Amino acid sequence: MGHGSDFLKGYDFWGVRRNVKLLLLILLMSVTLLCACGPDAASPEHSSSAGGARTAADDVIRGRQVVKLAVIARSKEWLPMVIAGFNNSSVNYYLEADYYYVGGMFDQEVTPEFDEAVTRFNIDITARNNYDIVLLSSWMQTGSYISKGLFADLNEFMDADPDFDRADYLPELFTALDRKGKIYEIPPLFFMNVILAKTADVGTDTHWTLDEFAAFIESRPDVRYIFGNLSKKDFINRVTQYMFVNPGAGEITFDRDGFKKILQIAERFPSEIPPDYNIGNNPLMYSITAYDFLNAAMSGDLLFGEESTMKGWPSSTDSGMLLAVDDYFSIFKSAENADGAWTFLKYALNHAEHQYKFRLPVNISLLEKAADKYLTADYTGFDFYIGSQAEVDRIMALYKSASTIDRENIYIRSIIDEEIGSYLNGLKPADTVIDIIENRIAIYLAEQE
Questions:
Q1: Mind listing the pLDDT tens digit of every residue in the chain (449 residues)?
Q2: With 0-12 CB in 10 A as exposed, 13-18 as middle and 19+ as buried, what is 295?
Q3: Which residue among 41, 79, 115, 120 is least crowded, i.e. fewest CB within 10 A of its CB?
């Protein structure tokens, strides 16, 4: 992306001239990330015990119907605010939440606590499903709940609601969520996984195929690190999952030639990324998460110190921006208060404000508000970097173009990591490893049904 200003001068960082104020911003962002992932991340305020009795006082909910929400989520900051706003504004409904698990939005590993929470949730909904709506982590195999008929088709709520307009949300959102004509999950927030490269190297086009991606890498035999932050296994796992596996739908469609192409490209990647990979190594690209307008605009400055382009991840035919999600809302088909559940879900979609700078709302009007904030110093707390309208327009176009949901599954990742080592170490040929990976993933997905 382009520069919002020309302040990047006067300090050397990662081999690029930097301003001292920028380092302060980086430090601030680092501290904020640590706070977001702190040890209290799994302890949201105002939560009730999972599966416990209703906790709202009679004088608070008198005259209103109670809506029961179960939560196994990865991000916590926005949800209590949305619940409080809903309960303060709703005349007909009062929402109560049972928190089974809430982690940090930057967590990368499934913890024993998460597995335990999923087990408790499954036991509870099997024994006595008294929930109307649920917020589930993207780590979970939601296809199993759908195949068991637990979730309602949200199209029915959207079609029956004269006040709901699909055009108010990301253009490709509902197409990406579609499962054979039905929609069972809707995320309130999103971020985007993209490839960042120098514009001088790749131009301004945001799309490329796997063959074009490979040709670009082959044209730079002098580069030691293709990605500044991806090893062989990291690259293989990421591309394999979004190209061949849809864990949410419980589907796998392996393309053997495409997989071999991925393995061929991965030969240029290091087995491990050393701690000092940025020092003087000048990687060709970076895998980045665009989680707001500021980091999307500044990433090129931070990592390359020059004009950069955000490109989609390649596939066998074309590429696109990968829309990523932490958590999804679903309404239970057996909900006692389905109307109340839909009313809350709709409220959440329209009030998941962009307040923490680390996720973006799927609601277009809220997304535009986030863009407007980026154009003021209030957005960062600093007056030395204020975005431009041209930057906002480019970034907004990228967000709106995302047409594929990136649902990386932690358990499938472990399967690929375990088996791909045999190929990388020369112990098994590619065809054998492909067969094993495909079979193991198919078994895993079948077990979730």
A1: 433 333 222 223 233 333 433 433 333 333 333 333 333 333 343 344 444 444 455 656 778 999 999 999 987 778 998 999 999 999 999 999 999 998 776 666 778 898 899 999 999 999 988 999 999 998 887 878 988 899 999 999 999 999 999 999 999 999 989 988 999 999 999 999 899 999 999 999 988 999 999 999 999 998 888 988 888 999 998 888 888 887 666 678 888 888 999 999 999 998 887 776 555 578 899 988 888 888 888 788 788 888 899 999 988 766 667 888 989 999 999 999 999 999 999 999 999 775 556 789 999 999 998 888 888 766 555 555 667 888 889 999 999 988 888 877 778 888 998 999 899 989 999 999 999 999 998 888 887 66
A2: middle
A3: 115
Measured between alpha carbons, how far is 95 from 83 in angstroms, rounded to an integer?
Answer: 7
Whole-number Å distance between alpha carbons of 84 and 198: 44
Tokens linked to 298: 């500044």
Distance CA 360, CA 350 (A): 12
Report the Cα 259 to chain-centroid distance in Å. Answer: 24
CATH code reported for the domain at 58-189+326-365: 3.40.190.10
Reported as half-sphere exposure (CB side, CA atoms, 13 A), residue 2 has a value of: 13
- CA-to-CA distance for 18 and 20, rounded, in angstroms? 7
Neighbour-count burial of 132, counting CB atoms closer than 10 A to its CB (0-12 exposed, 13-18 middle, 19+ buried): buried
Kindly report the pTM of this predicted structure: 0.81
> Which two tokens mark 274?
């050393």
